[in-house]
Amino acid sequence: MDLRYRDDQLAVRDAVRAFVRERIVPRASEWSEQGEFPLPLLPELARVGLTGLAIPIEHGGAGLDALTTALVAEELGAGDGSIGLTLAAHNSLCIGHVLTAASAEQRARWLPPLAAGTYLGAWALTEPSAGSDAVSAKTTAVRDGDCWVLNGQKQFITNGSIAGFTVIIAATADRRLTAFGVSRENPGLVAGKREKKMGLHASDTAQLALQDCRVGDADRIGEIGAAFGDVRKVLDRGRIGIGALAIGLGRAAVETAIAYSKERKQFGHALAEFQMIQWKLVQSRTELDAGRLLIHRAASLADAGLPFTRAASMGKLYATEAASRAANASLQVLGGYGYLRDYPVERIVRDVRLMEIGEGTSEIQRIVIARDLVAAS
Ligand SMILES: Cc1cc2nc3c(=O)[nH]c(=O)nc-3n(C[C@H](O)[C@H](O)[C@H](O)COP(=O)(O)OP(=O)(O)OC[C@H]3O[C@@H](n4cnc5c(N)ncnc54)[C@H](O)[C@@H]3O)c2cc1C
């Protein structure tokens, strides 16, 4: 196994790291306080290719492979979880579904404006009563001539109230799932309550209502009743992204803790000289590196066209839990100051928690891994 990265992968990572340090890190705290996604940032994100990571170059995207996309997600997480999650929903979920299942004509129509950051994308699977058990979705799509009429409720949709294009998953006749691309101009797609969250305050999370939402059959994505298979493929890749985002968040917390421990003196010594402090830093950094390796293994398998479902779930499970532990340990290193908003660590502790929940909880990852283990033996 080759654990080195290609020069072009490192060049993309370094360019994104520089952009994040210059344009995102200094403003992350302010955006969090404002409590909404900073839409003026969108053209800047588009200019550096962050709104079309995996979109092929002929459709205006960066055409990145899964491993490079994971390197980018980590850098975004190290800068700001909210911007990272916004772009994860846009790139991995919305665009991911289009890349997985849309026709050539739909890709040519939908991908260029998404890549250009003309608007953000969203992906609506979850419903008030269908979370982990997504297959029980109650939103209906009923055929009416050349159209489909969608009715139902979606819950927890990232970018829900600001997206220009949303992939909606609904149940067709025999309760099997079908996907549709719906534009913001459609009067039947109504953004509802914007959720107040524990963290990720600059990421938009909204309820969506589908009220006699008429969608042309030309905007149906994939085969009728085949969306659940596509959803699983989208989530497999999405989990690599969420794991990488979590590693970035954890890394930023540990970097803050290391810097602080060298400056702060107690009992006449820098905190960094105390073995118990060192142990926290060592444990956190080691676990984050292990999580990154699992995530990058999954991405490498995906890029090689090999099965990666189990590897992606293992990576997401381990990386997100390791990142939460690292963020908490880092907060402890800062003592009382870690609890204040003067340092980014308290925000990271709140932001990183979602990574163990979104795109399949830790429990669901364990179920996916267990099923795969049992099936393979
Ligand atoms: C900030 C945020 C952003 C999100 N963005 C999106 C988005 O853009 N699009 C979208 O479609 N969804 C989105 N989600 C939804 C997210 O994917 C779900 O919250 C998640 O899948 C869990 O579903 P649930 O919240 O309904 O919990 P539930 O499914 O009700 O689970 C509750 C608890 O029970 C556990 N549990 C459930 N089933 C089992 C089982 N069989 N065995 C053991 N334990 C089980 C869960 O692990 C969890 O701990 C978002 C959620 C949040 C909070």
| Largest β-sheet summary | 4 strands, mixed
Total DSSP E strands: 10
Stated plainly, the CATH topology of the largest domain is called: Butyryl-CoA Dehydrogenase, subunit A, domain 3
Order of helices and strands: HHHHHHEEEEEEEEHEEHHHHH
The total number of structural domains is 3
User: In the CATH hierarchy, what is the superfamily of the largest domain?
Assistant: Butyryl-CoA Dehydrogenase, subunit A, domain 3
Small-molecule binders: flavin-adenine dinucleotide
Continuous helix count: 12
Share of residues in strands: 15-25%
**Poorly predicted sequence stretches spanning 5 or more consecutive residues:** none
Distance between the termini: 24 Å
**Radius of gyration, CA atoms, in whole angstroms:** 21 Å
CATH class of the largest domain: Mainly Alpha
Give the helix/strand class: alpha+beta
Strand order of the largest sheet: 1-4-5-8
DSSP helix fraction:
40-55%
Question: What's the rounded overall pLDDT mean?
Answer: 97
CATH architecture of the largest domain: Up-down Bundle
User: How does the overall form come out from the CA principal axes?
Assistant: globular
